[in-house]
Design brief:
The protein has three domains: 216 residues, Multidrug efflux transporter AcrB transmembrane domain (Multidrug efflux transporter AcrB transmembrane fold, Up-down Bundle), CATH 1.20.1640.10; 85 residues, Alpha-Beta Plaits; 228 residues, no CATH class. The strands form three sheets. Strands 4-7-6-12-11 form a five-stranded mixed barrel, surrounded by four helices. Strands 2-3-1-14 form a four-stranded antiparallel β-sheet. It has 17 helices and 14 strands. It is α+β, with helices and mostly antiparallel strands.
């Protein structure tokens, strides 16, 4: 039974070069990938590289004077944090300031304009039926009737997953009229009691302007707002629909697929963002439709969505469209041709990946308990963070220098193995951090740098555990090669338990915290995992190889493994017992 065990041990000792070759290949591959990605340095957080700071101020909803409270503010922070980080692990910070302000810090290197739209667009999400629409301002050559449309995405469509795709909404053509006042009759008819009129109720745009005189004051006001609205002007876009309630018709702006500004008259909200259970951007490889956005509704939302799409499907464009409205802006206006009652739907059309992901992100995280206005947007410099980083790097260099001095004085020749292992760990940490920037949006901030400095101690501790186990075996009288192999299983268990505790602490800290503290936890967890990799695939194999060298195997006084200096027992030797008693008298 002893022979196979000995054979396995011999085989394990004879292949340390494979592990060293494997980790060398990994380092070369990761380094090559880093340079090929075009990001040879880690992406820095807002405290080190600067960025954009956005201040959002909460506003009370009409009829809800006490809506601004701690619960709603905390809910808004949570949704905003998930929304902006839906663009990637960008190390963005979202936190309250005072009783009615939220501060959003977006580090440089992130698509700050895209993130600003995601966070700054903070009003509640609504699905409203389209009653009338036209290209806004001088781009419009005529005033349209409700039966024609220039959609934001001309080929957008909403379909039930279990049905065939609806045909795209029509776009482009409008019905000429002499003056803007000819909009009155179509808008008036569209705003009759049923917010989603049938196609037969849609009159011609060429109807007499005087027909609008029969409209009620609220409708006449909405007509005037629609006629005067020029969506090309930011001030008018911001005020469009200002003060309107969810259960009232309103005007709004959006951009069509040609980049032109489109203005809308929209009916009361039929579905809200809270009715959307989930949404994601997917690429349709089967039909070749490209990127699309899928939506899943709650049970209540499914009924509402099925009801409104059933009504819209009976109408002519654009009154067979529903507008997805966020902060008064129409982000999409897909059309329907049948009732969508399956509880899930998809929006497809001329999306690229970014547009599909942005829309899915808005649908998923769009329903906030409060309305916010963008109070200020400032550029944050990295001057203070740069000074702190410089001081931190000096402190880290001093700490690393002290660790190396201790290793050299105490472990002598063994310190070369420890220093080489620290260098390998540092290279892997740097390269992986550089790769995580463009892949998942990881940004290195000051707490993350602290996590990397703390990891020096964790890594050095693993080497010390292994070295001390080897020296214990030598003190027992064993030679170096068997001492290394006998020490490794005992050291391995200790290292794994220690690193598991460190990783568990980092994981819990990452889960329960946000912002910069997450950067510390992430770096600590990453370096802890790399410590295990380095010890198993570099330190142990290198020690096995060096144990065969005369300098270490002979216990040279500068090797750190001198038996006399360690107080070793006499070498263990096997003695053969005589097979039979010896007769001393005859001797």
């Amino acid at each position: 039974m002893a022979a196979p065990k000995k054979g396995r041990s011999s085989s394990a000792q004879s292949r340390p070069g494979r592990s060293l070759a494997l980790i060398l290949i990994a380092i070369v591959a990761l380094t090559g990938g880093m340079f090929l990605s075009g990001h040879p340095t880690p992406r820095l957080g807002i405290d080190l590289a600067g960025g954009t700071s956005i201040t959002l101020t909460a506003k009370n909803e009409p009829g809800q004077p006490n809506a601004i409270n701690k619960t709603n503010m905390d809910t808004a922070v949570d949704i905003m944090n998930r929304r902006v980080n839906g663009l990637g692990v960008s190390e963005a910070e979202v936190q309250t300031q005072g009783s009615d302000n939220i501060i959003v810090n977006i580090p440089k290197g992130t698509n700050s304009e895209q993130a600003r739209k995601q966070v700054g667009t903070t009003a509640k999400l609504y699905f409203r039926p389209v009653l009338a629409t036209e290209v806004s301002g001088a781009d419009a050559t005529a005033s349209p009737s409700p039966s024609s449309s220039s959609s934001k995405k001309a080929t957008d469509k909403a379909t039930d997953k279990a049905t065939d795709k609806a045909s795209p909404s029509s776009s482009g053509s409008t019905t000429p009229s002499a003056t803007a006042t000819s909009q009155g009759r179509p808008v008036t008819d569209a705003l009759k009691a049923d917010a989603t009129p049938s196609a037969s109720s849609s009159p011609s745009a060429s109807a007499s302007p005087s027909a609008s005189s029969s409209a009620d004051p609220a409708t006449e006001k909405l007509q005037a707002e629609y006629a005067a609205l020029d969506c090309r002007k930011e001030a008018q876009r911001t005020k469009a629909g200002d003060g309107s309630k969810a259960d009232e018709p309103t005007v709004a702006c959006g951009q069509n697929s040609g980049g032109q500004w489109q203005k809308y008259v929209l009916g009361p909200a039929e579905v809200s963002g809270t009715d959307v259970k989930g949404s994601q951007a997917v690429y349709d490889t089967q039909s070749g439709a490209g990127w699309k956005v899928t939506m899943d509704f709650t049970s209540g939302g499914s009924k509402k969505f099925g009801s409104i799409t059933g009504k819209l499907a009976q109408n002519q464009p654009p009154q067979n469209q529903f507008a997805i409205v966020l902060d008064g802006d129409v982000v999409s206006d897909p059309s329907v041709s049948q009732a969508l009652t399956g509880g899930s739907a998809e929006i497809s059309g001329s999306f690229d990946q970014t547009e599909a992901q942005d829309l899915a992100n808005m649908l998923k995280y769009g329903a906030l308990p409060l309305t916010f206005k963008e109070s200020s947007v400032t550029t944050v410099t990295a001057a203070l963070g740069g000074e702190q980083l410089h001081a931190g790097m000096i402190a880290g260099a001093i700490g690393l220098g002290l660790v190396i001095i201790y290793l050299v004085l105490y472990y002598r020749g063994l310190s070369l193995i420890a220093i080489a292992s620290l260098m390998v760990s540092a290279v892997l940490t740097y390269v992986i951090m550089a790769l995580l920037g463009p892949t998942i949006g990881f940004a290195l901030n000051l707490p993350a740098v602290c996590g990397a400095i703390v990891a020096i101690g964790i890594t050095a501790d693993s080497f010390i555990v292994f070295f001390e186990r080897i020296r214990d075996e030598i003190r027992e009288g064993r030679t170096l090669r068997p001492a290394v192999e006998r020490a490794w299983p005992r050291a391995r268990r200790t290292i794994l338990v220690s690193d598991f505790v460190s990783f568990l602490a980092a994981a819990v800290l990452f889960i329960v915290t946000v912002g910069k503290v997450q950067g510390f936890a992430f770096t600590l967890g990453l370096t802890t995992v790399l410590d295990v990799v380095v010890v198993f695939f570099f330190t142990k194999p290198l020690m096995t190889i060096l144990a065969r060298k005369e300098f270490f195997a002979s216990g040279h006084k500068w090797s750190g493994l001198d038996p006399k200096r360690l107080g070793a027992k006499p070498p263990l030797r096997r003695t053969r017992r005589p097979s039979a008693p010896v007769d001393t008298k005859e001797a």
